[in-house]
Write a structure and sequence with these properties.
It is a single chain. The chain is an alpha+beta fold and 95 residues long. Helices cover 47% and strands 18% of the residues. The chain has a two-stranded antiparallel sheet.
Length: 95
Amino acid sequence: MEKTISFDLPVEITGEKPLDKIVMREPKVADMRAVDRMEGGELDKEVAMIARLTGINIEDLDGFSARQYRKLQKEYAAFFDVAGQETGRKSGASA
């Protein structure tokens, strides 16, 4: 499963044109295990996971505004919303 996250203002990515949409894939157990083994706090690990799932490097994610990053957090968390998946509820992934 993948989610497309849209932004009102384009985000800057090194070596690419500014993007107004980013695709995030669903995490796998291998992603969770790899990030769990990393040093750092919870936010460091979350940023590393989002980097893995979007293909965006951590340095570029560090340049996102809090509002832009919050959209990524929201969609990342929705992958773990088992109750919503069981009832067929879909998470909104646009602006």
